[in-house]
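Let us practice reading a record.
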Amino acid sequence: MLRGGGWTNLDEQCHLLEITDVPEELDMRDMKNAMVKEVEHLEELCTSLEVRRQWLDDEAKELRLAQAFHQDELRRQQTLLEDAERATQTALVKNHALQSKLAMLEPWSYSMSDDEATHAFECLHQDIKGWVDQHYNTSKIGTDCCLEAHTSETTSSNCSGSHQDCSTLLHSEILQNIQADIFEDIFCSILAPFTVGTSRSSWDHHFRVIDKEVQNICPMAVWQNWRSALSKATASLEKENLTAICNNVIQRNEVKFGQFSVTKSSERMKQLEKIVCDCFEFKQKLESQGKLYYFWWSPPGLALREERMVSNTGTYPVGATVRRTLWPMFYRQMPEEWVILTKEVVIMSIPKTLRQIESSSSIF
């Protein structure tokens, strides 16, 4: 059998066996290498995961710290908010209490509109004019007496007509002089001072300065109460002085114009005293307003201005000037301007040349 080629078959069989065994050994090595690589990969993955876990732990720790900080900050802000709310409530209570106290302060005595103030002022003018017309009548005095009492250049130059016309003119001028004298006394003693009762003291200037400061830095209600209280305080402190002022106005009028009266002295003085007291009261009411009212008295010789004045004759000749004031201008000061409420009533003086022209034209 061997001789017939059996060895050859055996060698082929062994060779086939060896060839068959090689792939199995290769597979084992590959598997081993693959497993080693897999293990290495898993180790790397575990290491990476550990690092990631550590990072997440650190991040979580930081987040917990941040959360704790923000919670603490939130509690602090909440506490501040609660404190602010309590402070707000306390401030509101105090503000309400202050407002109540302010409301309880004695308010200005009487609140007047501009129309009411103007009407009251015009009534005072009419009261004085009516008082003069009622108690004085110069017709009972002789013309010679009138001429002797009023021999001024202006008066004599006006007497260009008959003796009767001259007498009538003089009578009218005497009545106007009585009214003008009373006005001057009332204006200087009552209306002109900053507050009632400060006409004869050094307080007037100081009070004006203080009032300006109060007006600039304090609310309107405080300033109004300040003016009202100041007016009442000065009037109270100067009560005797005010009585003396009133008596002086009356006595001066009696001495200067008593000879022209047609009524009893006691009756005249009683009525004039009431008018003077009404002027005091009107002045005090103005001082108690939340507005600034003023009076203006033009000096003699000032040019006649129709937009601000009312002449005693109702005419406004060119070149005419103010001779005397019968009643002052009454105006209100505004933030940007001042508004005339009542024009000044004046006795005008006409230039001599103009009077000559008028006299010449009246002849024809």
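A brief commentary: The chain has ten helices and six strands.
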